[in-house]
Write the structure tokens for this entry.
Amino acid sequence: MSEQLDLARAEALLRAHYAELDPGALRPETSAQIRAQLEAAAGHRGRAPTQLRLDPVRGASLTGRLGLGWSLAAAAVVALLVVSWIAVGRLAGPPVAGSPSALLSPGASAPVVASPGASAGSGVPSPSGDTDAPSATASASDQRAIAFADRNHGIVVGGYQGQGAVWATANEGQDWTSTIVPTAPLDSVTVLGSLAWASATCVGADPGCTPAVLESQDGGATWAVIAATSVGSLSFVDAQHGFGVDAGSQGSTHVLATTDGGRTWATAAGAAPCETGFAAAAVSFADANNGWVACEAESAVGNSSKEVVATSDGGASWTVRSRIRLAGNSPVGSLPLPGTFRSLDMLASGTGVAATWNEGLIRTTDGGATWTRLPLGAVGGSLQWPGAAITGDGGLFALTMDVTSNDTSATFNLGLTDGRDWKPYGEFARLPAPGTSPTLEPASPPQPALASSVAFFDATHGIATGGDANHAYLWRTADGGKSWSVSAHGGTSASIMAIHGDRAWMAVSTCPAGAQAGDSACTASIERSDDRGATWAVIGHATLTSMSFGNAKVGFGIGPLPHSASGDTTSGNGLGPYTTLDGGATWSPLANSRPCGSLDPVSVSFVSATQGWLGCEGMGGAGEASKGVMETIDGGRTWTWRSRVYGPSGSTNIGSISITDYLAFLSMDADGRGMWVGLRNSTFRTSDGGRTWVSCPPGEFDAFQTSGAAIVPGGPWFVVQSGSNIGTDPVGAARLMRSDDEGASWTQVGGFIPSPSAPAAP
Amino acid sequence: MAIDEAGFIALLTGRLDDANRVATWILGDATAAEDAVQESAARAWRSRDSLRDDATMPAWFGRIVVNTCRDELRRRGRRPSVADLRLADPLPDPSIRTNPEDRDEVARALGRLNPDARVVLALRYGADLTVPAIAARLGIPEGTAKTRLRDALDAARRAMAAERAAAIRAEEARA
């Protein structure tokens, strides 16, 4: 059943929802409590290490001397536990022990910023990255899962700057190598000899997340994506046969299985491991016959109904080994009520370890019937992404991390145990943080200035604009893009360009620190060059998001419509077509201000003062968007749809245009040939005035984002792309692609377009 | 320049009300929001040496709050919650009334979205931030923020439509 709900109504409902939800100020007593805790923490600065004992309510005690070496991790545990008992205490009365000041423990006031580099300020990740780009990029790292083949060989996976990251060790965690993989952050890993598999999973309907299963045949050094399935908690019994949980759904009583090394996944044969109402949260097979599944049902305040089931016949049948419910039905075996399952790693002997949120690590030696909490002891650390691995030769590894890992550089600890007590490996076996790891340190500045828009006067003379967050640059070529000169341009952002003859126009934004193009604090100007980009002059002021000139005087653009309530261009109400008759100095809205109807104008491309095309787009999701291309032959007074798609099977669709991707940029020539490029790597071409569009070969464009396009009338087509093809190319690079057959095939011109070295931050 | 502890505490406590509002919008309930504010304060205190300029305190702490809330949503999202199980329940929920635009429906629809979507919607329609401001708050490029907002709004729209359909079905089942 499909109930229609238009976007304006959806926005109105959301605004009403948040307005009604608005709680206003924090309760004064809570505010006062936080202040008191902060002041208490400040007051404790410099005192001797302190004995702490916390939270007998939940049976989770932490006793130990807080030394400098691990005060951070211990403080993190303290904070997490205290927050937990605050939550518990709200329901069950005040905690039996502990004091409010423990929230910000004395240990925490020692110099505990995670990275030793913090005080030196050398690339220390900082959450204050709004105006501090290098710091912001360096902080986006986390470690989410751990697996060991034996005591020496292990892998940790996670994310780095929004991509997948893998750390591998071959000597018990003393040394690590790190690798970035071009996927979403990884949250599951398993190792089997020199083989390893990892996966990136997506929770629920997440259009911004593409799931992936990866395989390594060399112990984690190199990886290949082999499937796009959202499967978590990977466990393989041989090179072909493996299991996992369905992470793409909100929960299944079944586990998934593969029989082809992880390429395809289907519900495992045999009985459902979890009983009705439970969902498989983690799975571990020790061999082809013996497997365990951790199942979970409803949870509240850190507790959850859960069970552990086992099979000894490869999953044909399952037996409940232990179970506990929130509602207190007769438990089976011994499982803690606190905690929700994150990972499970079992040996055929029936010894295993599970990692949980809120309850740390729990361990069994009897096939999952009884579970006991593993004190982390001196290893410390909280379990933001708890993970643990056990090996047949006596290794037990825990992945612990600082709860502030999203905010500051995190410390990642690895413990090794003989099964009775944790021994920190060495002092600490720390995984190299991205900011300090040679293999993760970007070879070029974290956000190099990249060319993003391109225009060509003829087949050899072209210009490109772009920049980084704070500076605009201009590139020029006189050899068809083989070589470029680059110079700083005024303003902080320049990306929209148009040309006619030897004349070029550029839209430039100048923003104060912290603001970005489009902010009201920025000034927008139109600059013009009459000498193929050698010299430029400001000729007017207008905020345009697209610009095209039909001749030296008459141009068209897209910008915020006047009288728009907010000037906000994201809600789809504010953009309209503009025209200039004086070479770009002054701009006025076209009389027909809503040519696209319910869609929004996005990009404009004119070939004369009267003929041009308009790319339109509506709201979309999951990488799809309603869109269309219109043509005018009377200077924008009237427009005709050449192609349009509102949905997969809509009767109102016109012509042939893909619903995939968001239309970002449209470029046409006078013969009705042209291309549009999308925000997500798509490029489509037409040869019939925009009626039918076909995809340009995707292989040429992998891993690069097309950001600008230019057509030389009667000559070559160019697109500029930027991106990072991890492993072979510099991190962050732009390149020029050229087609001499109207978009059918493309080849890269020269090397990468050079990035200027960024000036010192203001 | 790092600021002294008293100054830091004064600045931080001055941000708590805003933090509470943002956390409530993101998490959808006041109790969880209060926990998140406390946790955020703890994180901020531990990380205070990384705050190099007190002028950036609002953005710095704002991002900690958002990250804390997102972490909480992620923790919730990794297993079926009580709310999810109730959604799967075929029996009509007596709390669902005929008003198809009932506030509970919006809340439930938001509960279906991924954490990043919930964060971006809360910042846009709750905190009324512009796209550049959202990008700055999240530390992501503006284009990414715009795409994320677009996707989130569309996902919300679909989820609300689905909730409405469920409510209508429930009403029909009662009739």
